Amino acid sequence: MSKNLSDGVGSLERSIDWKQGLAIALGVPLLILPSLGYLPMYLSAAAILVWGLSVLQGFMQNAAYAELATTFPKASGLPGFAQHIFRTENFKGKYDKGKLIGGFSAWSYWFAWNPVLAIFSILVGGYLHGLFPALGETFTEYQLSLISGLVIFTGLFVVNWFGLKEGAILGYILAAVSLIPLVVLTVAPFATGHVDLSNITGNWVPTDWAWDMHHILILFGIFAIAQWSACGWETAAIYGPEYKNPSKDVPKALFACGVICFFAYVLVQAAVIGVLGVDGVIAEPVSPLIPVAQAVFGEAGAMITIIMLIAAMILIIQTAYLGSSRAMHSMATEGNLPRIFGKTNRHGTPFIALLVTAAFNMVLISMGSLAAILAAAAIGYTCANGISLFAYVKAKKHPAFADLERPFKAPRGWKHVAMLFGLFNLPLCVIGVVYLNSLEIGWASTWLGFIVLSLYIPIWFYSQHETRRSNNKAAAAGSSANESSYDAADPERVLDPR
Questions:
Q1: Which one of 115, 233, 300, 342 is separated from 227 by 20 to 30 angstroms, measured CA to CA?
Q2: What is the rounded average pLDDT for all residues in the chain?
Q3: Contacts of 225 (CB under 8 A, 6+ apart)
Q4: Helix (H), strand (E) at residue 100
Q5: Torsion (CA) 75, 353, 371, 422 in degrees, nearest 10
Q6: Rg (CA), the chain
Q7: Whole-angstrom Cα distance, residue 112 to residue 234?
Q8: Per residue in 425-449, pLDDT tens?
Q9: Model confidence over 50-76: pLDDT tens digits?
Q10: Domain boundaries of the chain, sorted by first residue
């Protein structure tokens, strides 16, 4: 049961093992679905290589995060690591700039995961619109997306009200429903001979590709979009405070999920391009798996695929929903968000954060543009990863952290690897995704990303004011209690106003 602290922020409950953490994170391979047709638009079949490299990037980054998770077992993943490491211990001034940096990293991570709910709710609405003609006659795709979001968010809120363990059970069920058919759909085209390797080798890169600044910036932007999908399995580390044995459970969950992601991302993209060709994939940018299913299994297979994909989307919404709420709880615990967002129920669930996350995504669904929402989320994700990797470097070098016990250690010299990928995220990937957005969908998604990220500044200052006010009240109450106790001990004492 969660322990409710005096300041209104509850603590999370240690209730899961690595297999349950893996079950929740298993939604991450499904993040490839919105981008299966997007990457080949720019890179043709080389998109397969980009997915593989992006998952390897995830291994590099997540080795650092696994070490941080076992060094700071009470911190909630990326949001908690950065906040804890950058804050100034025993800070006496008014505003701690280091705490602001850590809080901004956590806010960026929250914004990176949050739009997953809106993106896949829009996809669910679109698939339902095509799957059931009667629904299409009654509702528009936009209306179905809103209804889908409302129903899914409400259902997941009820399930997760009873704690993370129940969320992991739902993850097991949905993983069986969605991931197994996805594996079958990926492997079957190779086994049945529907994959034509010439579709891959004959169109490896676009004919107009050149290694000039224009294409290099596009490549950085593509890596930012791919990273948002292929590196997201660090979510297994965010539940560090809720693992029964974080020193063993966190690395197991992270690396098991990473191996699954590598094969999933590479093989799914290869199967789609191998069956349809690059032009065929570009013709079906949102749902290229459906014509693949039609080619391999016929119309009945396509129907099964749509049902499977809807189940898969609910699984990834579950993953994002839990990750976003834990990020908000972590920020409130560290005093970087108003403490109301850290309130937990008796099952240890941060229910206020769940409600706010659902409401925010209902607003995002109203935007209706998958590309704009995804691009904005990628900006937040690159910022969060960059700052978190810099936090790892500081944790390895700073005297306050250098001698802490590390039950799991990344390979020797990993701080240099972390610095390299931190700089790759900030500024290179951020610059690339902004450039890519300006070419394709204008500046709407860039402005959305920067506005949401910048909103954190006034929220943070309010949080600091709230914390100081609470501390002053606590100090005054403590002073009054001591004074009353002293007077009771000496009832004839006369207070001297001097």
A1: 342
A2: 84
A3: 35, 38, 39, 374, 375, 378, 433, 436
A4: helix 97-113
A5: -20
A6: 24
A7: 13
A8: 999 999 999 999 888 777 777 888 8
A9: 999 999 999 999 889 988 988 887 776
A10: 18-470
Burial class (CB in 10 A: 0-12, 13-18, 19+), 420: exposed
Distance CA 381, CA 429 (A): 10
> 8's torsion region: left (phi>0), alpha (psi -120 to 50) or beta?
left
Contacts of 212 (CB under 8 A, 6+ apart): none
CA-CA distance, 111 to 109, in Å (whole number)?
5
Average pLDDT over residues 89-117: 86
Reported as half-sphere exposure (CB side, CA atoms, 13 A), residue 271 has a value of 26
CA distance 409 to 488: 56
- Name the DSSP class of 340: G
Residue pLDDT, tens place only, 223-261: 999 999 999 888 776 666 677 887 788 788 888 888 989
Q: What percent of the chain has pLDDT over 70?
A: 89
Listed range (195-204, 354-363, 365-374, 489-498) with the worst mean pLDDT: 489-498
Instruction: Indicate if the alpha-carbon torsion angle 279, 285, 291, 293 is positive or negative.
Output: positive
Tokens 């095509």 sit at which residue? 130
Candidates 116, 110, 114, 111; CA nearest to 80 is 110
Residue listed under structure tokens 């952290």: 401
User: How would you class 440 by CB atoms within 10 Å of its CB: exposed for 0-12, middle for 13-18, buried for 19 or more?
Assistant: middle
What average pLDDT does the segment 193-205 reach? 95
- Higher pLDDT among residues 11 and 241, named by residue: 241
Dig out the tokens for 140 from the structure.
Answer: 């528009």
- How far apart CA 224 and CA 428 sit, in angstroms, is 9
Instruction: Give the H/E segment covering residue 292.
Output: helix 289-297
Question: Residue 497: exposed, middle, or buried by beta-carbon count in 10 A (0-12, 13-18, 19+)?
Answer: exposed
Residue 4's H or E segment, with its range, is: none
Q: What does the pLDDT look like over 397-434, one tens digit per residue?
A: 998 898 888 888 888 999 999 999 999 999 999 999 99
Question: What topology is assigned to 18-470 in CATH?
Answer: Amino acid/polyamine transporter I (1.20.1740)
| pTM summary value | 0.84
Ramachandran angles phi, psi of 4, nearest 5°: -90, 120
Q: In this structure, which amino acid lies at residue 353?
A: A
Only one residue has tokens 């009353």, namely 484
Cβ-contact 306, 300 below 8 angstroms = no
